[in-house]
Write a structure and sequence with these properties.
The chain has two helices and six strands, in the order βαββββαβ. By secondary structure, the chain is an alpha+beta fold. The structure holds iron/sulfur cluster. Iron/sulfur cluster (SF4) binds next to helix 1.
Length: 75
Amino acid sequence: MKYRIKIDKDACLEDGVCFSMDPNHYEEDDEGKAQVVGGHMEGNISVGEFDDDGYEDAKEAADLCPGEAITIEEL
Ligand code: SF4
């Protein structure tokens, strides 16, 4: 299974929960907001795709995001 992670930067609260928990999928950008590792921007959304490795970690971080800024879609 492949999956796509999206981070809505407008909703990101810059608290670092995701990139502290799972630096394989999430990292801090120049403004202190989260972005997807190896991803690209679509408007103000950071988007990246991954194989199934690490899905549980990515999902756990998304579930704990206080801004509800992270969406994960199965592909
Ligand atoms: S957990 Fe959510 S609010 Fe916190 S830095 Fe990551 S995307 Fe932003």
